[in-house]
Design goal:
The protein is mainly beta. Helix content is about 10%, strand content about 45%. It has a single domain, classed as monomeric porin ompg (Porin), CATH 2.40.160.40.
Length: about 325
């Protein structure tokens, strides 16, 4: 795996820093996930199920469960062995690791998670696509997730596998990614350190290197490091959130003209807030950006741009509404 150690140093250091204090509390926080029963937001909705949200947390900007983020939860009575949760989200832009998958347009997303009291869970999450994220067919992303959550000290470790599917799309599009997240709390602050690794697969290959001959059949891997923090404001239905991610993978265009890590290595980040005016409804806003330069983005055009020619990794403000149960 060709990880640029110098570029990754700061991301690894931050992830290590967050994982330590994460063991100091009792929050089962799932910070960057999608609107699915717990999500690692597609943007990602923690209002659903912490398990699925963490798994897909990297796929969307998701709301955060206030009780979990603040570390204050009521002990459930007679909790069933199997629980089912789900959520639906309307978002102004589907951003995956800082890059728009909906051509900077709106997206409808939804997910469901089935969890067992042992810690095992399975889930599914989907979103419409456009522009860079399009693979033909239904122009849809469907993520299938399976994982296991268990306590580690006073924190929680969540590990599993996400299978990214593009139904009826072009050949060589689906790929698998392993993930692990350590979460906990430090007082009122929820902290999560995560790593996601996709082994070498043709869907991630550098089939069309920038400035070089095509290389069909090439296989590449991808690494993503993340660090998230949430802060529930006491006495208010508001949670503040922040995210930092680092990608290292295919620096060119894959077999279908896209890439999980468009420029090879880059950072993405967001700061935002979630508001829960009534139970089951979350209003979210987030400022999202990357360090992908205009020069690097230009090398990937016309793929890496909207119909108007704007880079799909530019800074933006994303708004979303999530209904969960």
């Amino acid at each position: 795996m060709s990880i640029r150690l110098a570029s990754a140093a700061s991301a690894v250091a931050l992830a290590a820093f967050l994982s330590a204090p994460a063991l100091a509390g009792e929050s089962d926080e799932a910070a960057a996930t999608i609107a699915i029963p717990e999500a690692e937001s597609l943007v990602s909705a923690e209002a659903l199920s912490a398990a699925t949200i963490d798994a897909v947390a990297m796929r969307a900007i998701a709301p955060v469960d206030l009780a979990t983020a603040s570390g204050v939860q009521d002990a459930p009575e007679d909790e069933p062995a199997i629980t089912i949760s789900g959520a639906a989200t309307l978002t102004s832009d589907y951003r995956f690791r800082g890059v728009s998958q909906s051509d900077e347009g709106m997206a409808v997303q939804g997910g469901i998670t089935i969890s067992h009291e042992s810690g095992l869970y399975v889930g599914a999450w989907g979103s419409n696509l456009a522009g860079w994220g399009t693979f033909g067919g239904a122009n849809m992303e469907l993520d299938l997730i399976a994982g296991f959550k268990f306590p580690v000290g006073e924190g929680t470790l969540d590990a599993g596998l996400t299978w990214y599917m593009y139904p009826s799309g072009a050949d060589t599009t689906d790929f698998a990614e392993l993930y692990a997240k350590l979460s906990g709390s430090l007082g009122p602050v929820g902290l999560t350190a995560g790593v996601a690794y996709a082994p070498q697969q043709e869907a991630l290959g550098n089939a069309f290197p920038v400035g070089a001959p095509a290389d069909p059949g090439d296989k590449e891997d991808n690494l993503y490091l993340s660090a998230d923090a949430t802060y529930g404001i006491s006495g208010a239905p508001v949670t503040l959130k922040a995210h930092l991610g680092y990608s290292d993978g295919n620096p060119g265009l894959g077999p279908n003209g896209t890439s999980v890590a468009p420029t090879g290595t880059y950072f993405d980040w967001l700061i935002g807030a979630d508001v829960v005016p009534i139970s089951g409804l979350t209003l979210s806003v987030a400022y999202v950006d990357t360090d992908i330069s205009e020069a690097d983005a230009a090398l990937l055009r016309p793929n890496f741009a909207t119909l108007d020619g704007n880079s799909i990794s530019d800074a933006t403000v994303v708004f979303s509404v999530t209904a969960s149960l």
